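Fold these two proteins, one after the other.
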Amino acid sequence: MTYQTTDRHGGLRGAIAAESTKLFSVRSTWAGLISATVVVLAFSGVLGTAAHQPQQRPLSAAGMSVSAVF
């Protein structure tokens, strides 16, 4: 009995080939990457701006209203 072997990419090499094919052929992958980048940049901008704002004097627990919490 003789086994014929074909040049099929398996293992890590095949997984990388499959993922690169999926990355370049599926439109939603690029949309997801772009939207995730926008969200990360917006979130870091908000945090960076909040970190550089002057801090207000903290209220005492008795003087804080419910609307100040939200």
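Now the second one:
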Amino acid sequence: MSSRTTILILTTMLVLSSGCEESLFNEIDSPDSSKLKVLSSFAVTLQRDGGLGTDDKPLPAGNEPTAFTLSAAALLTDGSVLTSFNRKVAISVEPGKLSADSPKEAKFVNGILKEVNVSVLQAFGPTRIWVEDTLGTSGSYVTGVSEGIIFSPATIQSVQECDRDNDPVCNGKSPNFFPSPLRDKFVKMYRSRKCGDLVVTNVTSEGFFVTDTSQGECPGAGNQEHAFGHIYVYNHSRPEGLQRGDRLWSLAGNVSEFFGLTELGFPTWEKKPCNERVEGDTWYECRGVVSNSSPDNPEDYAGGGGYVDCPPGKKCCPPDEMLLDMETPECSGSVCYEAECVPFNCKGTSCGPGQVCMKGRCEDNPYLPPPVIVEPSRVKSHWEMEKLEGALVKIENVVIQPIDSSDYDQYGQWKVMMSDGKTKITIVSRETVPSFHPEQETGACIDITGNLRFHSVPRWLIYPRDDVDIQEAKGCQ
């Protein structure tokens, strides 16, 4: 048998077998039945009272569903409706998910899908609803997406806080405990509001901890807990160029669960510059005391933040210097301000961890959030502790317990008894504070500051950052 004969037989078999199910190529009834018309795409439209959100006024992101009315048309390559398309299609959303009561599939009738009500939750940033011909064995995999819906950008809170009312695995039980609603997704996070920052609270040999100081309460508002506003970023190695107190403009990576700890993997970040104008911060750039400065006079015009004459008594700092606004500490580049202009590198002296150059001196970094005091009663509530996962915390008047040599030798872990005399919590310090030997300090009463991490067993651990984080307590009996 010749190869040509073989091809002819196979072709005939394929044509005959295609009649067993609906074809990928949908034919329109027409006088010219020899012309097969191919499903090319779906035109997807959305309706919502109040619109689909804008960059200036995004829809609120989170666990509360947002309702839309979805319609779609099956289209040919020329943009006309494929009226013979009568199939069920899959409906989905990315990023985010459809609510439990939203249909995940719907049927076209004569090429039209009419007004299907869907609700979206856990979406953030630009979001689209998808219609896909992927159901059954004869799906064509033709896809259509809606116009963009603009939700608020992702925040650390949207990554950390799961929905106990609607997510069945958000139950505090092994193996998931309280997993991220955005687990296994890539996210890019920004600060919650303009009153705070994403602040690095600790840098480790494998990553770093970040707190959103605008989450919950703005700095100085009294409540500094910033519930669900903390996260550990796993970088596989020490992050180059980051130190405690640095502020980040954005933070991105893949959300995962590591033995119950929500963390961000394969991260990228944008460090907020100290001496450059950043959108959202309020200052003018200038170039000294000038008259009639305008965009038409490039020698006098700084661009970016605008142009301004420095009033009498105020100075203009050059771009390589900084000064401090004492009401809202801010490295501000070139501005008019009633203060001295000083080099932000502290005359060549590198500031230590947790410090920043202020008026030419290394001072405690004003951006670092204070540690959250954890009482024994809180340790007993897994949900309340979950709000502080990744946070900088402090426990006071705790007593070092006899060391379990196997735990300490293998993991560097040791326990303290909290002030109620009943509650214990685990400390991990061997790598970060090698000079401290808890086996020699059994019974000592101390205060401990560090970052809070979760691990399935033991559940909660505190990681001191350096020897300053372990201090003799003053309130022990």
